């Protein structure tokens, strides 16, 4: 058994406040325990302690827990433990909303099951249907899929789900949104009539309740969301004009100790333009969005996961379940419109109880959204200080030093940056050079410091920030 090196990074109570259970307490198969330890899972997290015993008992489950606290392993471990590799049938179906999440989940499942002999197949849209058919003609025990593709294969009689008695909906709030609910209910018609259903997510809108009432049999509800945001993620905003966003982002990159970062925009066009601009400034930046070809999306996804690129500019495609441990900074270049999107975006940092930083670039038009999201999530997003302490988002510092959180520092009017950007890596191979002309205007904005970024208002005059309209 080859164990990974121990993870000595500090962790927050989101994953450390457990009952003290060990993996051996669940009477799992020895081969599965080998996979668990080889993955580096030292102890069950709180959501795993709650969900795994119930799932092993065959109960229907509705589990709500924060992003990055171990939900994926909480359903994969009992699913894999209950699969019988000697039976040549599909025994479990795991549905996820995006292709990238399907690839990630199947990768984790294969790692956990590598000593079990369980055959796991991933099936998503945007890939060769012929390849999926060939894979499903072989012995398959677990399918990880997006709804549209697996429904198509089930309808053609290729994916034989008649004996499949376990269904997992990861990111259940998205899976039961109007665009997916009809597909999921049609898939249920192909499955065994007596089945176990598990729903897991960080947010549960009313659509989940409707599905629960129709299809779940006395489900056990697990709610570990006493507070909505991750304890290890520190949140700031910088109040800027739209034309100054790129300059502010440049200042952030030069000031912060970034391991890997994710930058979110609200449109596909802005994603591509920003990635091109960052490349021009000398930073390593790829982009990803839903309108890209699947082969390009896969290439970017794997490159970012493997650390070949430091910064990823993304649409909301990447807000769901994507787990990249090296990401310690999330930047909302465009502020989201609702609290659910905000929660999933900032959850890309601070994974599994580690430290992270979320910075929001707020324009005059965003000020009421900022107040609304603070109120709905019960959190506080404070003005960015002149300097951000590294211990808030860089490993190696005792998390006890994070309490209480520091208040914003003084705003220094003469705190400017040198004119030349510091290079963080190679050029962006995925950016389109044709967008270069469109990004010229943003490059004319002078570099600004944290202090200036926090003070600039709609009219361009330097004032104290007043974006939220409540003080």
Query: What's the end-to-end separation, in Å?
Result: 59 Å
Number of strand segments? 14
CATH C-level name of the largest domain: Alpha Beta
User: How much beta, percentage-wise?
Assistant: 5-15%
How many structural domains can be distinguished in the coordinates?
Answer: 2
* Class inferred from helices and paired strands: alpha/beta
- Principal-axes geometry comes out as globular
What's the rounded overall pLDDT mean? 79
**Architecture per CATH nomenclature, i.e. the level-2 architecture of the largest domain:** 3-Layer(aba) Sandwich
- What's the CATH topology name of the largest domain? Rossmann fold
Helix content: 25-40%
| Largest sheet descriptor | 7 strands, parallel
* Strands side by side in the biggest sheet: 3-4-2-5-6-1-7
CATH homologous superfamily of the largest domain - what is it? P-loop containing nucleotide triphosphate hydrolases
Low confidence ranges: 397-471
What is the number of helical segments per DSSP (H or I, 4+ residues)? 17
Over all CA atoms, what is the radius of gyration?
Answer: 23 Å
């Amino acid at each position: 058994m080859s164990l990974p090196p121990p993870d000595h990074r500090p962790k927050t109570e989101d994953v450390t406040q457990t009952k003290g259970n060990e993996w051996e307490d669940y009477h799992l198969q020895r081969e599965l325990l080998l996979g668990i330890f080889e993955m580096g899972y030292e102890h069950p997290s709180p959501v795993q302690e709650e969900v795994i015993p119930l799932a092993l008992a065959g109960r229907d489950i509705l589990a709500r827990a924060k992003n990055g606290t171990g939900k994926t392993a909480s359903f994969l471990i009992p699913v894999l433990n209950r699969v019988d590799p000697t039976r040549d049938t599909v025994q479990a179906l795991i549905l996820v909303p995006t292709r990238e999440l399907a690839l990630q989940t199947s990768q984790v499942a294969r790692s956990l099951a590598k000593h079990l002999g369980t055959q796991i197949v991933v099936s998503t849209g945007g890939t060769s249907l012929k390849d999926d058919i060939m894979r499903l003609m072989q012995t398959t025990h677990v399918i990880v899929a997006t709804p549209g593709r697996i429904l198509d294969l089930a309808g053609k009689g290729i994916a034989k789900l008649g004996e499949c008695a376990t269904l997992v909906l990861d990111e259940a709030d998205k899976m039961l949104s109007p665009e997916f609910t009809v597909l999921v209910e049609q898939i249920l018609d192909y499955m065994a009539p007596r089945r176990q259903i598990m729903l897991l997510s960080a947010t549960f809108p009313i659509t989940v309740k409707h599905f629960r009432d129709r299809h779940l049999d006395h489900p056990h509800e697990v709610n570990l969301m006493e507070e909505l945001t991750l304890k290890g993620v520190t949140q700031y905003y910088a109040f800027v004009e739209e034309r100054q966003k790129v300059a502010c982002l440049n200042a952030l990159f030069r000031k912060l100790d970034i391991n890997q970062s994710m930058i979110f925009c609200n449109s596909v066009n802005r994603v591509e333009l920003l990635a091109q601009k960052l490349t021009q400034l000398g930073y390593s930046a790829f982009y990803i969005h839903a309108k890209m070809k699947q082969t390009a999306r896969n290439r970017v996804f794997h490159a970012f996961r493997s650390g070949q690129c430091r910064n990823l500019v993304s649409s909301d495609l990447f807000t769901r379940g994507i787990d990249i441990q090296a990401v310690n900074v999330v930047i909302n270049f465009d502020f989201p419109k609702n609290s659910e999107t905000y929660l999933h975006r900032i959850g890309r940092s601070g994974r599994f109880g580690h430290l992270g930083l979320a910075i929001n670039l707020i324009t005059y038009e965003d000020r009421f959204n900022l107040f609304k999201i603070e109120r709905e999530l019960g959190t506080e997003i404070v003005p960015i200080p002149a300097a951000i302490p590294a211990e808030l988002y860089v490993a190696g510092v005792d998390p006890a030093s994070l309490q209480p959180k520091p208040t914003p520092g003084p705003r220094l009017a003469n705190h400017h940056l040198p004119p030349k950007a510091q290079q963080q890596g190679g050029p962006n191979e995925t950016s389109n050079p044709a967008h270069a002309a469109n990004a010229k205007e943003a490059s004319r904005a002078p570099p600004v410091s944290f202090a200036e970024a926090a003070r600039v208002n709609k009219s361009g005059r330097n004032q104290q920030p007043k974006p939220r309209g409540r003080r």
